[in-house]
């Protein structure tokens, strides 16, 4: 029996482009490029994010090129500014990425403020976002789970807002669902959880809250079996989205029988 609702009738739309998959994946921390390829395929990801300051996508012709295993004609390559601590660094990095990717403008902005927690520097993030939007970039932006800041970034012109669920790489899961709910409820652009997911149930919870997608790297690459975990995350994101669309039952203090006792024969 074919389901009435499918991924095809519920695309994730970013900067006017529809995507079937709501799971975005990173490309760092894998054992090698082959594992990166296999995990990306198992995740069903269409958007893959690349740390321009750490990954070769053509800067060094003598090093293995990520684009050989994740070709841009098959995947949307999303350059990010991981490792940048100022707006100027981030803008300069994404200008380079635009040159390397033949003028593509979809980018992920992150400006870090602390080397221990990798929390974002929101002041520098706002500054960089304004500069990049003014230059014609389509900015997906990593930020804290502050609803006011999320709205400001949307109003600047960012095409997606990406609040953390917990510190990058922590695997702590969704730590403040109420902030995420507030962000989702007030957003007119996609809200994509970025950072903190540890396992499949975390991804499902993010989607059940109404988030439009989840981006992850460490949760997959750091698993004992990354390719299998990528598959699990794919299913979790799909299940969480379906549950959100279906609408959960209200929480009740007392039981409510599935089969009423009234009117039983005998």
Walk me through what this model shows.
With 266 residues, the protein is of the alpha/beta class. The protein has helices spanning 33-43, 87-100, 122-134, 147-156, 177-186, 200-208, 218-221, 226-246, and strands at residues 12-14, 17-19, 23-26, 47-51, 76-80, 106-109, 138-143, 160-163, 192-194, 213-216. Helix 1 (33-43) links the parallel strand 3 (23-26) and strand 4. Strands 5-4-3-10-9 form a 5-stranded parallel sheet. It has 8 helices and 10 strands.
Largest sheet: 5 strands, parallel
> What average pLDDT do the residues reach?
92
Output the strand order for the largest sheet: 5-4-3-10-9
Stretches with pLDDT under 50, minimum 5 residues: none
Structural shape: globular
**Strand residues, percent:** 15-25%
Count the DSSP helices.
Answer: 8
Distance between the termini: 37 Å
Q: Strand tally, please? A: 10
* Portion in helices: 25-40%
- Rg, nearest Å: 20 Å
> Structural class of the helices, strands and pairings?
alpha/beta
Pathway: Cofactor biosynthesis; thiamine diphosphate biosynthesis
Binding site for 1-deoxy-D-xylulose 5-phosphate: 169, 195-196, 217-218
Subunit structure: Homotetramer. Forms heterodimers with either ThiH or ThiS.
Protein name: Thiazole synthase
